[in-house]
Give the backbone structure.
Amino acid sequence: MCALKLLAMPAAAFLLAKLLDLPPLAAGVVVLFAAMPTGANTYIFAVQYQRLVNPVSGAVALGTLLAAVTLPVVVVIVAGLN
């Protein structure tokens, strides 16, 4: 799921930005937002509803660690669009 979130979502956002013919700056913002790791809100909701707390906390931590690798790559790709 982390790979899907960190790789497939930015790719889908890039394709949608191209299909919608967004300006390069707007397309870059959309792709970068899609490339961000899962937020802590998912963990907060898991704790609040006492559902899958451990898997969610692991997914948030893993996604954040993997984003340290994938985000710079996405930034370089987006910078090449301008």
